[in-house]
Sequence to fold (461 residues):
Amino acid sequence: MKLFGTDGIRGHVGSFLTAPLALEVGISAGKILKERVELDRAINQTKSANVIAIGQDSRTSGDMLSSAISAGLTAAGWDVWHIGLCPTPAVAYLTANSPEIFGGVMISASHNPPEDNGIKFFGDNGAKLCGETQQAIEKLLESRLHADLVNSSTDWGKYHEKSHLISDYQESLQSSIATDLSGLKVVLDLAYGSATRVSLEVFRNLGAEVVCLHQEPDGDRINVNCGSTHLEPLRAAVKEHGADMGFAFDGDADRVLAVDSNGRVVDGDYILYLWGQELLENNQLPNSAIVTTVMANLGFERAWQKLGGNLVRTDVGDQYVHAEMVRSGAMLGGEQSGHVLCRHYAVSGDGLLAALHLAALAKQKAPLAELMDQSFHPYPQLLKNVRVEDRELRRNWQTCDALVQAITLAEQDLGDRGRILVRASGTEPLMRVMVEAETLDLAQHWTNSLTGLIEKQFVKA
Fold:
């Protein structure tokens, strides 16, 4: 049984993600975490907490799934503290910094549409569970689904509402920057999701003038034509209000994309470059390293290398970026999609934290539009998705000889003039094709060629 993708368990609610499944996931995860914590305490004397914190975004299925997960965790002997509506990084922060909380769960499908939802688990250090622990949960879950579900234990946990704990996370955000934001006009697109909690207050408390879009939590409209996957409303609002910049969050606010005063998109590559430049100047980047993924633009990489920096690439997924940062001691990393992690201030990717620091950088140095002018010119990069419903076809696409041969031909043609990346999405039923080249025509040619082949081989099969 394979449930965990690149960002937890995620899928369509009802046909895949159901209350009975969430209950069993809660029981299985609770039992595995109990085994791991007892072992860790015996060896490393880790914190003796017996609490799992649970947060959720605004999706209408969130209450159902959080209740089911809570029931499973309490059945496994864990106390549950329900934080309620909050950003994913709030759960990670509370898990890492509270001596009473051992682990965390976030109910969210991130940037996915309203009909999807997901389950993300965090360990006692605030990081997402490692692959080994995820596999152990899957193995136990599979055995339970084919066995008598009677639970003979009487060591039940308790459930508590703890929504007030969000203030601890809010205070950590505000104290992370040393300057106020007075004089800045900022537009925030809150995507009807998790960012609707604390984002407006944080920016206003720091002195910024704020215009908000999609600012009410609405599970039926979360991410719909708004947020980090639909930047048109933000770009229009920045120009309409004469704002200095705008920020768009995804459904659970663990990532952010920005727009400067000219309407240009400031993606994760630019955020990493600009923030990295500041940290590099202050000798706060070990080995001058930024950790990013295979999706990062070649223009970003070559510009960073000209500064004397070192760019380390991982597979797509913030958990892989985080793992490499921990392994190498790097302090800044993230993804082009807007997941940005700075270990000076946080234990996980945090869209709101990144937005605050980019705004502070613009206040201290120069307007964001000027910083963009001084940064780098990206290679034309095209990303096209092909919907492939068959999960096995997606996961085993490398066995398609025709596609593998076409990719090899394209790579030979591009040489050092570009890159190609074909992969199956870990969160959606999509095959993703990314082509990067010196010219747009060249990128378009190979994008169309490869996506057309995927449609022929996988969709029309």
About this structure: The two ends are 25 Å apart (CA to CA). The first strand starts at residue 4 and ends at 5.
